[in-house]
Amino acid sequence: MKARYVREQKTICGKEYMEVDLLNVSPAEHRASVRKKKEFASSLAMQRCNERYSKRKLQWMVAENFTERKNQTWLVHMTYNDEWLPYYDEDAENNVTNWLDKMNRRQAKKYAAAIRENPANPGGVLPKVKYITVTEHQREDKNKGLKEVRYHHHTILECDLSIDEIKSCWGTGRGKNWEPLGLVKCDRAEFDKGSLEAYCEYITKNQKRTRRWRQSQGLRKPTQPRPNDTRYTPRKLAEAATMYIDDRKFWEDRYGMLKLGDGSARQYAFVGAEARYNEITAEWHVIAKFWADPRRQPKKKAVRK
After folding, report:
1. What is the pTM of this model?
2. Under CATH, which architecture does the 68-190 domain have?
């Protein structure tokens, strides 16, 4: 029996992004049941590179659920004025809840109006906003050399509201009594080959800060097919990590075409790969990234009647 196996695990995020992990697994992990293998795959990044788990999980969720094709995705950053700065996490979370509720009420009116105009097709208006939001702060601790970081929020948002409407919901009161809770910066999301990796890395870069996550209901999880433990040997993994890490042809020959369950196929282009070497265990971990350009996908064959 082999002393070590190399696991190939795909993570398919929506229709445009995919990552492939190549890493060593033990004989016990190799002999595990299908269910146990999938459980292992779902926590793969956490087990092997815990410091990057939050970033990768966020990146996968964003790539699965948000896309630039709809042109409705925003990157929103909310801060507080001194008089409205929360002291407890619960207060900060309540402010986010109120902000989301206000946007949902406004969007519900647009959705209802679209249905009245065209009951069969409401024009693509979303019934509710879709979001992933992060609340972040840091208490001052001179003994640990930590400076205070005020409460603030990062949100990846998909909605049918304008920038002014999004900003006006970050406030309290109505009419003449309305006051902003703080500043709101809202930019249209700029995807890089199907991914918002740079933004996800930005909002997860400081692991020492206190951070709380929230997301809208109904977000899809990335798909992780059954892993393959027989395609690579430790020697071939080492070659992929050293000799072929930037070789586009090497990676696209292996993962450039993905067959789907409905008989169609999806074509991927190699984006890049990174390799990490564990000197203690003498093992490699490779992560290869791929993008399925929607403009260059194979056309589905017409079905003859």
Report:
1. 0.82
2. 2-Layer Sandwich (3.30)
Burial of 133 (0-12, 13-18, 19+ CB in 10 A): buried
CB 216 within 8 A of CB 107: no
Q: How are beta strands 228-232 and 257-259 bridged, if at all? A: unpaired
Burial of 67 (C-beta count, 10 Å sphere; 0-12/13-18/19+): buried
* Distance (Å, whole) CA 134 – CA 214: 6
Question: How many whole angstroms separate alpha carbon 177 and alpha carbon 171?
Answer: 10
Distance separating alpha carbons of residues 29 and 124, to the nearest angstrom:
45
Give Dmax over CA atoms of the chain in angstroms. 76
Per-residue pLDDT of the chain (305 residues; tens, 9 = 90+): 446 789 999 999 999 999 999 998 876 666 655 555 555 554 554 444 555 667 788 899 999 999 876 668 999 999 999 999 999 999 999 999 999 999 999 999 988 888 888 877 776 777 889 999 999 988 877 777 778 889 999 999 999 899 999 999 999 998 889 999 999 999 999 999 888 999 988 888 777 778 888 999 999 999 999 899 989 999 999 999 999 999 999 999 999 999 887 778 999 999 999 999 988 888 999 999 999 998 888 876 655 55
DSSP state of 211: E
Is 257:266 a contact under the CB 8 Å cutoff? Answer: yes
Question: What gap in Å lies between CA 79 and CA 248, rounded to an integer?
Answer: 42
Q: Where in the chain is the domain with CATH 3.30.70?
A: 68-190
How far apart are the C-alpha atoms of 298 and 265, rounded to whole Å?
A: 7
Which residue do the tokens 């996550």 mark? 213
